[in-house]
Amino acid sequence: MAKVAVVYWSGTGNTQKMAEAVVEGAQGAGADVELFEVDSFTVDQIDSYDGLALGCPSMGAEELEEGSYEPFFAEAVESGKLSGKPVVLFGSWGWGAGAWMETWSERTKEAGAKLVNTFIVENEPDEEGVQGSKDLGAELVSAL
């Protein structure tokens, strides 16, 4: 059985709601899934999983959250642990045009990860946003 980690940061609960839906979708596709807030997950744990779902909202000037998520992601890139790992990215945004996800996607691919897909929603995920998050989780599992 494929093992997936869903690692997220959420300031308002929007990205957490997406993360929970990603878990549901991945479990429904047959994976063993664990949900982590980024502060309770270390880069060294990446090796224990077949795939990763990484979630962070757009912050500031369309960037990853700087206190916890950016340092985690930068360490994951620098360590080489993302190389060859199937990954999906997700998050919510309230301003801008989604440029943070484009930048994050490029960084993920440059780190050697197998970027399966991305999914963003504006503000709180509605029914369509929850379903899209579930679909993202299932899509990750199908890529494993």
From TrEMBL:
Its cofactor is FMN. Signal peptide: none annotated. Gene3D superfamilies: 3.40.50.360. Pfam families: Flavodoxin_1. Keywords: Electron transport, Flavoprotein, FMN, Transport. PANTHER family: ANAEROBIC NITRIC OXIDE REDUCTASE FLAVORUBREDOXIN. This is Flavodoxin. It comes from Selenomonas timonae.
